[in-house]
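Milestone M4 deliverable, item 7.
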Amino acid sequence: MARSSYQFTSESVSEGHPDKVCDRISDEVVDLFYREALADKMDPSRVRVACETLATTNRLVIAGEVRGPQSVTKEKIIDVARKAIKAIGYEQSGFHWDTAKIEVLLHQQSADIAVGVDEANDKDVGAGDQGIMFGYACDETPDLMPAPLYYAQRILQLLAQARHAGETRLGPDSKSQVTVQYKGGKPVGATQIVVSHQHMDEDMTSADVRKLVEPYVRKALPRGWIHKQTVWHVNPTGKFFIGGPDGDSGLTGRKIIVDTYGGAAPHGGGAFSGKDPTKVDRSAAYAARYLAKNVVAAKLAKRCTIQLSYAIGVAKPLSIYVDTHGTGKVAEAKIEKALAKVMDLSPHGIRTHLQLNRPIYARTSAYGHFGRKPEKDGGFSWEKTDLVAALKKAVK
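Output delivered:
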């Protein structure tokens, strides 16, 4: 029997964290290829991007393999990278959008990989790689996400909005962590709150930073969650003036648990950012979240974990696995069969159903790929709950 009373912790990092800077730039490259393909009237399903970014003191290296319109030049890639750094807010001597040295080492996609994914007419027939992907949803929060990560992300989102609005003297780099108390299986409060935030005035103390961040933390968490027994840790080392890639190097794909479910659910191991959606590390993880969210929204379970598995060059998933953690109202085997009925889970089917062949990825690079609101232009389409009726019908 699952425990009903316990504490669970999840962390988040801001858009200015060194690894998130790299995720943002890699996803800006993905978006650039899609924008240029659409502008050049090229079939966007032909775009292939696997882009990794390294950041350190006033230096970026962008590497990987690509396929797409010839209009995507090194100059355009450097331009979107600089604009991303500026949008995040880095204008520091050790990392500045205008003066950082940027090296682009992207090359053409391997023909050996392409042959498993393409036919002569360029119709996708198989997954871009092997792997396992997980999706998860639960009824703990309005967006059907685990509470510890949901609120850790929200703290940093509110702080980022305040920083961009000029309301605080805080820098772009920050981290948060929330320990949630569960009673009767439900989240009821925060026992520990951690916020480490870069500050722009060198002489600021931990107490000074707490005065700035505490109102946003209180706004982020539900009423009554912060109480006298809640322990705060704000800039526990005392000083956080040097931040971002000047303080620590960054790499694409190093914050996969922050990107997903904060440790409350399994992760297949593959990162998302910098990859076009032929890579099932990304698209099938989105599909698994989409299906899990719809299972919970349909009230077939209070919690749902879904695993999908793929082989390179093979179109259909090798397996579909569902675990409702003892909360299901329908047998898991019946849900597994229903999922295959309501959605084509081939890589091509996923991209078509969720309309993934478009420039919607830079916005996913910070504050989580899941638990966000679907957007009018198709961003976060995997957060829709439009399969509820179909799922209910399929399990009858």
